[in-house]
Amino acid sequence: MYKSSSKQSDDSVFLMVGVIILAIFWRIRSALYRHLMIVEIVFSLLLVLGPISYKLIAGNKKTINTSNWNSISGLAFEDQVSEWLRLNGYIDIIKTEYFDQGIDIIASKSGILLGVQTKRSARPVGVAAVRAAVAGLKAYGCNQGMVVTNSSFTRAAIKLALSNGCQLVDGQKLKSSTAQLSNS
User: Fold this and answer.
1) Which of 7, 69, 135, 148 is buried deepest, with most CB atoms within 10 A?
2) May I ask the CATH architecture of the domain 66-183?
3) 50: number of CA atoms within 13 Å, CB side?
4) Positive or negative: CA dihedral 9, 13, 14, 19
5) Cα 83 from chain centre
6) Which of 171, 51, 46, 169 shows the shortest CA–CA distance to 117?
7) Residue extents of the structural domains in the chain
8) How many CA atoms lie within 13 A of 54 on its CB side?
9) How large is the average pLDDT for residues 144-148?
């Protein structure tokens, strides 16, 4: 699966807040000595349940940053596409291994298992990406293919995708649909 890059910073904040609260309780412990056991129990519960409740309240909100697609790595682009798929209602989103046999992400929606090839590129994406996606469908048991890029597609890639029923999502379509999802 994919992970939020801010997870470490969230955990660090919770740890710092916990340490500060512990220091305050330690400082006033003599005044609360007879109630110390209750205070320790309450503090322990706050320390354990605080981060959990925060994550439940705040949710696992991730954003898609369309402005940096030309400067991020291919793996970071895969993360962005995974989030885009999640926002579009896909579930069970799995990123494949590094030697992925043509499919970078597998996701399901309404009984359809989608195999996605992602290509972060400065130039138009050619037939090789479509060919890899179509070939990888069988290896992963997918029944529909998609190639997603931050760029555009060559005419030959579009023709091959049409003849194989492979969806193409170029940078322009990806950005416009991301903007629509953000506004809803």
Assistant:
1) 148
2) 3-Layer(aba) Sandwich (3.40)
3) 17
4) positive
5) 4
6) 169
7) 7-58, 66-183
8) 12
9) 94
Query: Measured in whole angstroms, how far is the alpha carbon of residue 177 from the centre of its chain?
Result: 16
CA distances from 80 to 13, 14, 75, 181 (A): 25, 26, 9, 13
Tokens representing 151 are 């760029």
First-to-last CA distance in the chain?
A: 25
Q: Percentage helix, strand, coil, to 5, in the chain?
A: 55, 15, 30
Q: For residues 50-59, b (16+ Cβ closer than 10 Å) or e, as one string?
A: ebeeeeeeee
For 34-84, the pLDDT digits (tens) are: 555 666 666 666 666 665 555 554 445 556 666 666 777 778 888 888 888
Q: Which two tokens stand for residue 176?
A: 């416009």
Asked if residue 114 lies in contact with residue 90, where contact means CB atoms within 8 angstroms, the answer is yes
**How far apart are alpha carbons 134 and 117 in whole angstroms?**
9
**Beta-carbon count within 10 A of 127 CB:** 16
Pairing of strands 144-149, 112-119: parallel
Q: What is the DSSP letter of 120?
A: -
Predicted model pTM: 0.64
Cα separations (Å) of 70 from 67, 81, 91, 149? 8, 14, 27, 10
